[in-house]
Design goal:
With 949 residues, this protein is an alpha/beta fold. The protein is 48% helix and 12% strand.
Length: 949
């Protein structure tokens, strides 16, 4: 039966209380006209937020006995005791659709995955199979919600119509697999509906009269309002008097004060819009307090990211907020603790995964927990910092790459640690960091066992996760947090101990569902993504209510602020995702973007009829320009009044400029900070940019190395230095003279030894070293060819990786120590004397080295190493460029003179620094491009005037 709505006009000049009292009087008069007993009458409202408003209005306008005023969900829940479903007849042998996304997805995965084609599909394309599961579950739940609004006797006819529309039995063509899966979902939903749905007792109600209230006439199929109208239509066919009151906003009257008309304000960008929205809300709250208004201010949630920014500013201002929309549980810190623990527990997790988990919070590293307990005076943050620093210094990419066996007996752990914890050639890990790492190993052990197993059950995964959380001390913290408690409930942690295996739907599904590690991680992410966290409302009356547009209609508010009123957020036609197209949904009488948009327009029209509405919209989203929503103009034309221009209520703050000049640090008052030692690198920094010297050598600041996967040219250079040292150590110990082929083979053998010692043969590093390893043979031949020609000139290796120091007396009271590690020193006897040759290995740009030696007085490194050499011998120096094409030796001309000039310049510079000379940022070109201290000197932000000053 088609029932026409009875209009309920919300006059703009009337308050919400007045509108509700008018409704109560009109409804009471209708009940009397129908001779319906008020005590047995039922009034159904669209949302629970207006229940108190309606009841109070009835008591004030009518008095006497108040009919039952409730929502359809509450009425259905009160009748749940009288409902028992019939045995479900399903060819698939599935339990009924529960409308629980987690349970229904597991049921569908179990059924479809048991088929041969489904198992093959899942093995071949796991992500595609999981996407299909999402579509099947969504379709089944959509059909169940649609059939829930029908009387049980009407459902078989709808199912026959749906089968005909889907073309069940039609030979397959394009999209055939999708059509078959939709047909499967339809049969699953149909069997569930025929067996009975929880809302079926509603169709057996026999009140004396039924009154349904909606915000507008547009109804989207599958919603609670649609169910309410379906029950109303059925009861009308049974002879029950029914009345549908549809609220709508009336046109503004000519005599209405202009200040009560809606206003709009354009904003520049999202941040500007968020600030303006917060300012408008606070201004309305203050105005309401001044007027003694009891109603809060409504903040309409159209753009959730924008609303979260506004909420942060409102909380900072001290406003009491009731958030009825919430946010995704996956974005909370509680969810981060769960997901980061799972990611860190992977046997091949990266060090960044481990550090992210240790920094996620809510962990409790016990002080009395065995050999790896927290040491006295050490906290979690301190130990995490030590662990991070050690891993970054040594390039430890794998979180569990140290491979300290959990299988080592506890009585042998202390003895086994030093040998197993620190790989060969590496600096020992700090004690607190080592204890923390071992504690982390113990925490993740229950999960790592499952990662290595063969598709454990979902129940095993959840029990392992619960055990790991308990060991980490995070379980109690999660249970004490609102979002954490919701996360544990969403993952069904509370059922693990309460339900026996095989007892109950969830226990059976969780025991029979098999998941590997990545699939379980995706499952947890899906559950957290599908759950909305809504914080508890404040105990006192809220100043601001954050609510969606549909819930804001019919409620009393002192003012309404609606940010996001642009063409993308307000009134935009949404796209239809999934396998069911808009055309198919229209044929099956399901919700479509058009029906949802119509319902949104009704709610928007009601809101715009209220006083104190302010709409905000931005000019652009990034580089994309935005126009205000067309609904603003549409409403203005229908209401017959122009939307006014809102004022900017933000209070300007005058800030006196305090320009900061370029830094000019000086050691005049802190001579103790002048370094007692200088290296080639630090002195080159002083020559290129005094400020960089100040930051790196005086203050000792260092840029934290990134844990980057893979190898670069610098890593290859470090490895090559070690190969050359090992090769020459072995070669010098030989008694016989080797041939060129034997030298090449010895070089390659040394390379393989160093590869193994440095871990470059591990699975995590081998793929990245392959491009370098492919050219080892050519590099060995090029180096040996140069070496043998070099030795024919009388040169012989004297020392490698030698550390030299020299004290330079600058004045009677001032001296500085020169310190350096020289890659290689060769020697020969020539013209009756001994000559030394300082060689520095380079793997970078050959052209760059040529430019260095072309300007010898500008080259710091070789001159510095020459100054460190034994002064009694004649010294020369050269760069040795190592490349697979050719090994070239680039001589520094007259390096002894360059060394003398360098020492004189160093003495002058040290004298000036000791006297308090400033150390400005004077670097240019490449010195600034690759400077670690660039963010400190802020040179990029100086003006030309500041620099010249």
């Amino acid at each position: 039966m088609t029932i026409q709505p009875s209009p309920w006009f919300w006059a703009p000049q009337s308050s919400a209380q007045t509108c509700w009292q008018d409704w109560a009087a009109e409804t009471s008069a209708w009940l009397k006209a129908q001779q319906a007993d008020v005590r047995d009458a039922l009034i159904v409202l669209p949302v629970g937020a207006v229940l108190s408003q309606a009841r109070q209005a009835w008591a004030a306008a009518v008095g006497g006995w108040v009919p039952r005023i409730d929502t359809i969900a509450a009425v259905s829940e009160s009748l749940a005791w009288s409902w028992a479903p019939e045995p479900m007849q399903s060819e698939a042998g599935l339990p009924p659709v529960t409308l629980d996304a987690v349970l229904d997805r597991l049921q569908a995965a179990r059924s479809l995955g048991s088929e041969a084609w489904g198992k093959q599909w899942a093995q071949r394309d796991r992500r595609g199979f999981e996407f299909a599961l999402d579509q099947v579950v969504e379709a089944a739940q959509t059909w169940v919600r649609r059939m829930q609004s029908m009387a049980p006797a009407q459902r078989p006819a709808y199912l026959d119509h749906a089968r005909e529309v889907l073309g069940v039995g039609v030979p397959q063509g394009p999209g055939g697999r999708e059509r078959l899966l939709l047909a499967w979902a339809l049969e699953w939903a149909g069997a569930t509906a025929v067996a009975g749905l929880p809302g079926d007792p509603l169709f057996g109600l026999r009140p004396s009269a039924l009154v349904v209230v909606t915000a507008g006439e547009a109804v989207s199929p599958g919603t609670e309002i649609h169910l309410t109208l379906g029950v109303m239509s059925h009861l009308a066919e049974q002879g029950v008097p029914v009345l549908w009151r549809s609220a709508s906003g009336g046109a503004l009257t000519p005599g209405l004060p202009r200040e009560r008309a809606p206003l709009a304000r354009p904003c520049g960008n999202p941040e500007d819009e968020a600030q303006e929205a917060a300012a408008q809300v606070l201004a309305a709250v203050n105005d309401g307090r001044t007027q003694g208004a009891e109603a809060p201010v409504a903040l309409i949630a159209l753009d959730r990211s924008l609303i979260r920014r506004v909420r942060a500013m409102l909380e900072g201002a001290g406003a009491l907020i009731a958030d009825e929309t919430g946010w995704l549980l996956s974005t909370t810190r509680a969810a981060a603790v769960l997901t980061r623990l799972l990611q860190a527990s992977h046997p091949r997790a990266s060090t960044d995964d481990l550090l992210d988990w240790l920094k996620s919070g809510w962990l409790d590293w016990p002080q009395d927990g065995g050999a790896h307990a927290r040491p006295d005076g050490v906290n979690l943050d301190q130990a995490t910092g030590d662990l991070e620093g050690w891993c970054r210094r040594h390039g430890m990419l794998g979180a569990w790459g140290l491979q300290v066996a959990a299988k080592v007996p506890s009585e042998q752990v202390d003895d086994a640690l030093p040998a197993q914890l620190v790989p060969s050639g590496r600096q020992a890990m700090p004690g607190p960091a080592a204890c923390l790492w071992h504690w982390a190993v113990q925490v993740v052990e229950p999960l790592q066992v499952l990662w290595s197993g063969k598709r454990p059950s979902l129940r095993d995964w959840l029990q392992g996760l619960q055990t790991a959380l308990a060991r980490a001390g995070a379980l109690q913290a999660l249970m004490a947090d609102a979002a954490g408690e919701l996360a544990l409930q969403s993952l069904r942690f509370e059922t693990l101990d309460a339900a026996e295996p095989g007892g109950g739907m969830w226990a059976g599904l969780s025991s029979q569902t098999r998941l590997d590690g990545p699939a379980f991680l995706r499952w947890v992410g899906t559950v957290l993504e599908a759950t909305t966290f809504r914080p508890a409302a404040p105990e006192q009356a809220a100043d601001v209510v954050i609510t969606p547009m549909a819930r804001a209609a019919l409620r009393p508010f002192h003012a309404i602020v609606l940010p996001g009123a642009d063409e993308r957020q307000l009134g935009a036609m949404g796209s239809q995702s999934g396998w069911m197209s808009t055309k198919l949904r229209e044929a099956l009488d399901l919700a479509t973007p058009a029906s949802q948009r119509a319902a949104q327009w009704d709610a928007f029209s009601l809101l715009m009829s209220r006083p104190g509405v302010i709409c905000l919209h931005r000019h652009a989203q990034g580089s994309e320009p935005l126009e205000p929503s067309a609904w603003l103009e549409r409403w203005s034309a229908q209401a017959g009044v122009a939307i006014g221009q809102a004022l900017d209520v933000r209070l300007p703050v005058s800030v006196k400029p305090s320009p900061v000049p370029p830094p000019l640090p000086s050691l005049r008052e802190a001579l103790w900070a002048l370094p007692a030692q200088v290296t080639a690198t630090s002195y080159e920094a002083l020559r290129q940019c005094p400020y960089r010297f100040f930051a790196t050598s005086v203050l000792g600041l260092r840029e934290q190395d990134e844990l980057e996967e893979g190898l670069d040219r610098s890593d290859f250079g470090i490895w090559l230095h070690e190969v050359l040292r090992s090769f020459h150590d072995q070669r010098q110990g030989q008694l016989a003279i080797s041939t060129e082929a034997e030298d090449v083979q010895a070089w390659l053998d040394a390379a393989q030894r160093v590869i193994k010692e440095t871990g470059l043969d591990r699975d995590s590093q081998r793929p990245y070293f392959l491009p370098f390893q492919a050219d080892l043979d050519r590099l060995a031949r090029a180096y040996v060819k140069w070496l043998r020609g070099h030795e024919e000139g009388g040169w012989a290796l004297q020392d490698a990786e030698r550390i030299e120091q020299r004290e330079l007396q600058v004045s009677d009271e001032l001296s500085v120590r020169l310190y350096g590690q020289i890659d290689r020193i060769d020697a020969r006897h020539h013209d009756g004397g001994k000559q030394h040759l300082v060689l520095d290995y380079k793997t970078g740009s050959l052209e760059g080295l040529k430019r260095k030696v072309a300007a010898p007085l500008e080259d710091t490194q070789l001159a510095f190493y020459a100054a460190l050499s034994d002064p009694q011998w004649a010294v020369s120096a050269a760069y040795l460029h190592l490349d697979v094409q050719d090994v070239k030796q680039l001589h520094h001309p007259d390096v002894e003179r360059s060394a003398q000039v360098l020492l004189e310049g160093l003495a002058r510079d040290w004298t000036r620094l000791h006297a308090g000379a400033a150390m400005p940022a004077l670097g240019e070109g490449s010195a600034c491009t690759y400077c670690q201290a660039r963010g400190l000197c802020r040179k990029d932000h100086w003006t030309l005037q500041e620099v010249s000053a």
